[in-house]
C-alpha cells in the first residue's frame, strides 16, 4: 500500500509539473517570464514551454490598443482664464518587458504625463486660441509625449481633445459680458433709429416749407397775371383788384358757412362798397 501511495504522489507531481511547464498564451497577449526573480523571456501567443518551479509568469499584457480616458482638469491660459480640458489617448505596447520594467505603472504614468503636457500647452495660449485650436493642441500633445513613452516600449497611436470649455465661473462671466454687449448694441441701434427719425422729420418739414413758399410764389404770380388780364380787359386800374378781392372775400365766406362751427353768415348787401372799404377806397 505504501508503494502505491508513493507512486500515486509521484504521478500527481509529474502531472502538476507538466501542467506548470506548459503555457498557452491567447492571441492578443504576451506574458513576461522571470527566472529566479530576473527577466528571462516574453511568451508570444500560442503554445509555450517554461521550466516548472524555476520560471514564473509575472505579467500578462495585451498587445491590443489600450484606451486611456484622461480625467478633466482645470487649466489656466496665458491671459489668466480658467478652462476645463480632458482628453482620450490610444496607446499600444510594443515592448512588454520595457513597459513592465521601465516604469512602475505605465497607465498612471502616461495619464499624468498627458495632463502635465496639456496644462503646459494651453498655458502658453490665450483663451480664444485655446478654444479654437483643438488640432494644434492635439498635435503638440502628441509630439510632446511620444518620445517619452517610447522609452517604456509604448507607442502613442493618437490623442484627442474631448472637451475644452471655460470653467463654470468663466462661463458665467462670459455670459454677463455677452449680455452687456447685446444691450449696448440694442441701445446704439435705438439711438440710431431715433436720430434717423428726427432727421427725416426735419427734412419733411423743410421740404414742406419749401413747397409752401413755392406755392405762394406761384399763387402770387397767378394773381398778378390775372390782374393784368382783367386790367387789360376792363381798361381800369382799380376794378381788377376789387374784383379779385371780392372773389376771395366770397370764397372765404363760403368756407366759413360750410364749417362745423358756423351758424349764420350774413353777407353785406352792398358787396362792392364793402370790398372797396377793405381796400380803403
TrEMBL record:
Membrane spanning stretches: 6-25
Protein name per its UniProtKB record: Band 7 domain-containing protein
UniProt lineage: Bacteria, Pseudomonadati, Pseudomonadota, Gammaproteobacteria, Methylococcales
Compartment annotation: Membrane
Chief location of this protein within or outside the cell: membrane
Species in which this protein is naturally found: Methyloprofundus sedimenti
CDD domains documented for this protein: SPFH_paraslipin (cd08829)
All residue ranges annotated as the Band domain in the record: 20-178
Topology term for the membrane: Single-pass membrane protein
GO CC annotations on file: plasma membrane; side of membrane
SUPFAM superfamilies cross-referenced by the UniProt entry: Band 7/SPFH domain (SSF117892)
Keywords for this protein: Membrane, Transmembrane, Transmembrane helix
Family classification: Belongs to the band 7/mec-2 family.
Amino acid at each position: 500500500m505504501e508503494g502505491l501511495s508513493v507512486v500515486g504522489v509521484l504521478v500527481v507531481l509529474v502531472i502538476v509539473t507538466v501542467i506548470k511547464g506548459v503555457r498557452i498564451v491567447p492571441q492578443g497577449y504576451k506574458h513576461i517570464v522571470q527566472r529566479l526573480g530576473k527577466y528571462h523571456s516574453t511568451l508570444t501567443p500560442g503554445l509555450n514551454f517554461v521550466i516548472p518551479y524555476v520560471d514564473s509568469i509575472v505579467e500578462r499584457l495585451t498587445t491590443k490598443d489600450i484606451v486611456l480616458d484622461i480625467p478633466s482638469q482645470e487649466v489656466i491660459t496665458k491671459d489668466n482664464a480658467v478652462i476645463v480640458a480632458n482628453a482620450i489617448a490610444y496607446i499600444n505596447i510594443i515592448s512588454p518587458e520595457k513597459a513592465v520594467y521601465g516604469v512602475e505603472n505605465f497607465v498612471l504614468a502616461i495619464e499624468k504625463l498627458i495632463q502635465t503636457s496639456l496644462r503646459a500647452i494651453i498655458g502658453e495660449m490665450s483663451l480664444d486660441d485655446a478654444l479654437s485650436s483643438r488640432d494644434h493642441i492635439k498635435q503638440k500633445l502628441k509630439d510632446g509625449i511620444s518620445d517619452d513613452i517610447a522609452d517604456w516600449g509604448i507607442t502613442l497611436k493618437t490623442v484627442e481633445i474631448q472637451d475644452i470649455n471655460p470653467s463654470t465661473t468663466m462661463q458665467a462671466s462670459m455670459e454677463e459680458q455677452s449680455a452687456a454687449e447685446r444691450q449696448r448694441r440694442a441701445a446704439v441701434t435705438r439711438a440710431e433709429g431715433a436720430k434717423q427719425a428726427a432727421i427725416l422729420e426735419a427734412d419733411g418739414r423743410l421740404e414742406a416749407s419749401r413747397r409752401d413758399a413755392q406755392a405762394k410764389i406761384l399763387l402770387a404770380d397767378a394773381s398778378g397775371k390775372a390782374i393784368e388780364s382783367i386790367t387789360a380787359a376792363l381798361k381800369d386800374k382799380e376794378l381788377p383788384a376789387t374784383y379779385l378781392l371780392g372773389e376771395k372775400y366770397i370764397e372765404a365766406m363760403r368756407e366759413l358757412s360750410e364749417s362745423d362751427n358756423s351758424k349764420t353768415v350774413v353777407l353785406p348787401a352792398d358787396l362792392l362798397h364793402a370790398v372797396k372799404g377793405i381796400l380803403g377806397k
